[in-house]
Design brief:
This is Toll-like receptor 4. By secondary structure, this protein is α/β, with parallel strands linked by helices. It starts with a helix and ends with a helix. Bound molecules: 2-acetamido-2-deoxy-beta-D-glucopyranose (NAG) (8 copies). The site of one 2-acetamido-2-deoxy-beta-D-glucopyranose has 10 residues, from strand 27.
Length: 817
């Protein structure tokens, strides 16, 4: 495993070889790990205190390798292929407190090389091919730890000068080749400070000379897997008589259940070792009943892990405070066996196969009971603990099923921590069961198959800090009131509860809430956050919900202390209508947990397009484009309306033409001539024109707008239908006023357009008064018309007057066949 990690690192870092080192803390901490470097880069400042130079290529260490780094305290040279270390190597890094040389094939140690490191406290020489502890390091008087695991050391003999190392406290000799320990090997240990940890695990110990450890004081002795055989262990434990050790760790690392042991007394040696804490990693199988605890009765902490123990004998522990029975395949919780133990404070009985809980009788000091990960199936909990009034911690998690009857925690008023997670709890959810637990701080009933029906479920939990109800269900709007009295709550886990909607007042009294976990629900909105009551919130997890967007006002009213906001794995709507929200995501990546997992689900549900990569600018462009297009459209519409208004008559005329143009043959013309004239000339038209034409012989029927136009019809329609189309001829009375009148010009233009379409039609122009030629150009077509065609000119002279009328009449009638 380690090997693979190491090679993975080597491969990974060889890629970035030659790059400068990584700054971990400015001026203080740098890592050059795995850069294939053969020198210390000049980019390392002289103020550096910690330098990780592992996995490089140094081979030959001498003075010139290290620049002057007087503040350097920690130097890691693990696996640098170092073979040779010269006397003056550490001259420039004298102030080192920690030197790590793990995994170098060192063949030569300059005799004085370590001695220049006067301040050295930790020396790590793991796996360097060391064959003896006789190192030249008599000047390292501040040395505290010497780690020389995984070497070929055959003796635990320490150099004599080490007995003066006042602070020395750790000698790690794991995985060496120590097979024999004799009394003279422990001479220095005997003199050394009484506070040392000695690790001898994974050595092939065959023989310990009896009494070799007599009167030695150790803080900890680790002899896990330190013996070649069970027999060697039995003899070895016996040989340790007279040893005083605070914590003794023995047993095995690996499971050895295949080998069956038939020696009932193999732990007898323990009776002659003075220890306070004992950790036995059993991992072996016995076919005879072993009295495991017989020699542990004076210990304060007893832990047995990984054995196959069928039963526990009645043991009169005298001072035991903590008992750990973990993974031992025990089917009974030792309740009766431990009865009347007044000293026991903590019982951890986990990963066993017990199905019931016995009565805990008269155990006044018991505070901590962990029965998690068993096979406990109960219909009625938890009266067994009536003899443990001090119980503060009860862990019944990871069991099959526990039923709670009325008043389940009666007598357990001191409970502070209660854990039922992943244990099916029957009876919770519709009863108020905790009313006496006024000190309860921590309640975990996650994944306990609970449906909350009653809003008073948590009644009485005045001091609850942590509530975990993940995987529960809520009936109706129970969630709205359930937490109302939990004013001390700081941590609420409601993940995976199938919550679709949360009423804003659900958390109204949770002013101290710091963590709210709503992961894996079906929430679409988190509008409840807009209310000011969750001011203290630091962490909010709403990942794996159905949130598509969060309105700006909610984002703006998020708690100011928020440091962690998990919004990942929601179907975020990345459309241009959400630019405020997406901009917020982009700008708040520091607060957002897993911002890389906030994906846009607008395009397709499987899209892995990150919201933070959304191009807001494209939306700005789109917006601009929309505005420009709208403005253009409006302009065009306005322009068109204006044109339509301005030329409405032409349009109407066109419409009429399109409606069906009746050719003059088929047309029943009602008038002989339509007169276009200015109203200023009306007197002349009425008195002269009408008089002369209509009353003459044959009478000519004139169409005069003020007389003949139909009421109620628009003027334009009248002009077209009655006047121009309904008359055979058109008489245009040109005068100064005619030229000035827009209506007249319009009528004339319409008349001309008929003239163009219909050759028969004719326009008869009467010049009533002289008009400047320049002005006639104002009327479209008039100037041209006057040039091309003959026209009649009105004159007051009676002779020419008479000729005028004759010519006019002729003009109207003559072409009228
Ligand atoms: C490491 O550096 C040496 C020269 O310093 C070079 O020959 C070798 O190929 C390098 N190894 C890797 C893995 O880059
Ligand atoms: C060496 O380290 C000690 C503390 O560990 C410090 O007081 C001293 O100043 C350092 N010396 C130099 C030369 O940096
Ligand atoms: C190394 O240093 C020690 C004392 O510091 C000295 O006795 C020894 O001669 C030196 N060896 C070499 C090869 O310089
Ligand atoms: C371990 O020590 C024994 C002698 O006690 C020796 O024969 C054996 O070769 C050593 N093993 C290694 C791996 O050095
Ligand atoms: C014993 O050593 C440990 C570190 O190994 C240290 O924390 C503790 O203070 C020491 N106790 C005494 C009494 O020196
Ligand atoms: C336990 O301690 C008592 C006295 O303190 C002693 O007599 C007894 O031998 C010890 N038992 C074991 C197994 O260490
Ligand atoms: C209860 O035990 C389980 C399993 O051993 C453990 O994971 C959990 O943290 C414990 N609960 C508490 C509150 O310590
Ligand atoms: C909250 O506490 C008040 C006062 O103690 C009590 O009247 C009310 O029933 C409690 N509500 C809930 C839901 O526990």
């Amino acid at each position: 495993m380690t090997f693979f990690t190491v090679s993975a690192f080597m491969i990974y870092f060889s890629i970035s070889a030659g790059e400068s080192c990584t700054k971990i803390t400015e001026n203080l901490h740098y890592s050059c790990m795995g850069r294939n470097l053969s020198f210390i880069p000049s980019s390392i400042p002289s103020s550096v205190q910690t330098l990780d130079f592992s996995f490089n290529v140094l081979k030959h260490l001498k003075k010139t390798v290290f620049p002057v780094l007087s503040f350097l305290q920690v130097l890691d040279l693990s696996r640098c292929q170092i073979k040779h270390i010269e006397n003056d190597t550490f001259y420039n890094v004298k102030n080192l407190t920690t030197l790590i040389l793990t995994g170098n094939p060192i063949t030569y140690f300059g005799p004085g090389c370590l001695n220049s490191l006067h301040n050295l406290q930790r020396l790590v020489l793991v796996d360097v091919g060391l064959s003896s502890l006789m190192l030249q390091m008599n000047d390292l008087t501040k040395l505290q730890e010497l780690r020389v695991g995984t070497n070929n050391i055959e003796s635990i003999s320490l150099p004599p000068f080490m007995s003066t190392f006042r602070e020395f406290s750790l000698l790690d000799l794991h995985a060496n080749n120590i097979s024999i320990i004799k009394t003279d090997h422990t001479a220095v240990l005997r003199e050394i400070v009484r506070n040392m940890t000695l690790i001898l695990s994974r050595n092939p110990l065959l023989y310990i000379e009896p009494g070799a450890f007599k009167d030695i004081y150790l803080r900890e002795l680790n002899i896990r897997s330190a013996f070649v055989s069970s027999a060697a262990q039995k003899a070895g434990l016996k040989a340790l008589y007279g040893l005083n050790v605070k914590r003794l760790m023995f047993g095995k690392y690996r499971c050895d259940y295949k080998i069956l042991l038939s020696d009932a007394n193999y732990l007898d040696g323990l009776c002659f070792i003075n220890f306070h804490e004992v950790y036995y990693y059993m991992k072996e199988k016995h076919d005879v009943p072993v009295s495991i605890f017989r020699c542990m009765i004076n210990a304060t902490i007893v832990a047995v892990k990984g054995g196959i123990i069928r039963e526990i004998a009645n043991v009169p522990f005298y001072e035991i405070k903590e008992l750990y029975l973990i993974s031992n395949q025990l089917d009974t919780v030792p309740g009766k066996k431990l009865a009347h133990l007044h000293t026991l404070e903590k019982l951890v009985f986990t990963n066993n196969v017990a199905t019931q809980i016995p009565d805990f009788i008269d155990m006044p000091s018991l505070q901590y009971v962990d029965l998690s990960s068993n096979q406990i199936t109960l219909t009625s909990c938890c009266s067994f603990f009536s003899g443990t009034p001090q119980l503060r911690y009860l862990n019944l998690s990871l069991n099959p099923q526990i039923g709670l009857s009325i008043g389940p925690f009666d007598g357990l008023d001191s409970l502070e921590i209660l854990d039922f997670h992943h244990t099916r709890v029957v009876g919770m959810g519709y009863l108020s069961l905790f009313s006496n637990l006024k000190y309860l701080r921590y309640l975990d009933i996650s994944y306990s198959s609970i449906t909350f029906i009653n809003i008073y479920c948590f009644y009485g939990l005045r001091n609850l800090n942590v509530l975990k109800i993940a995987g529960s269900n809520f009936q109706g709007d129970v969630a709205r009131y359930l937490f109302n009295n939990l004013t001390f709550l700081e941590h609420l886990d409601m993940s995976y509860c199938r919550v679709v909607e949360l009423h804003p007042s659900s958390f109204k009294n949770l002013q101290r809430l710091r963590l709210l976990n709503l992961r894996g629900n079906n929430l679409m909105t988190i509008d409840f956050l807009a209310l000011p009551n969750l001011k203290q919130l630091v962490s909010l997890y709403v990942d794996k919900n159905s949130i598509t967007s969060i309105p700006l006002h909610v984002l703006q009213s998020l708690p100011t202390n928020l440091l962690e906001f998990d919004l990942s794995s929601n179907p975020i709507d990345c459309s241009c209508s959400q630019t405020d929200f997406i901009l917020w995501i982009i700008q708040n990546q520091k607060v957002l947990k897993n911002p890389d997992n906030i994906f846009c689900k607008t395009f397709s549900p499987s899209s892995d397009f990150r919201a933070k990569d959304f191009d807001i600018h494209s939306c700005v462009h789109k917006k601009r484009l929309t505005i420009v297009l709208s403005v253009c459209f409006v302009t065009v519409v306005v322009l068109l309306s204006f044109l339509v208004y301005r030329f409405q008559f032409y349009l109407q005329y066109c419409c009429i033409l399109l409606r069906g143009y009746r050719s003059p043959g088929q047309q029943e013309c009602s008038y002989d001539a339509f007169v276009i004239f200015s109203s200023y000339d009306e007197v002349w038209v009425m008195n002269e024109l009408m008089e002369n034409l209509e009353n003459g012989v044959p009478p000519i029927q004139l169409c005069l707008h003020m007389r003949d136009f139909q009421a109620g019809k628009s003027i334009a329609s009248n002009i077209i239908d009655e006047g121009i189309m309904g008359s055979r001829k058109i008489i245009v009375v040109v005068s100064q006023h005619f030229i000035d009148s827009a209506w007249c010009r319009f009528e004339f233009e319409l008349a001309q357009s008929r003239f163009m379409m219909e050759r028969n039609a004719n326009i008869i122009i009467i010049i009533l008064e002289d008009v400047e030629e320049r002005k006639t150009k104002k009327v479209f077509g008039l100037h041209k018309h006057l040039k091309k065609n003959t026209y009649l000119k009105w004159s007051r002279d009676p002779l020419s007057n008479m000729r005028f009328w004759i010519r006019l009449r002729k003009a109207i009638i003559a072409t009228n066949q």
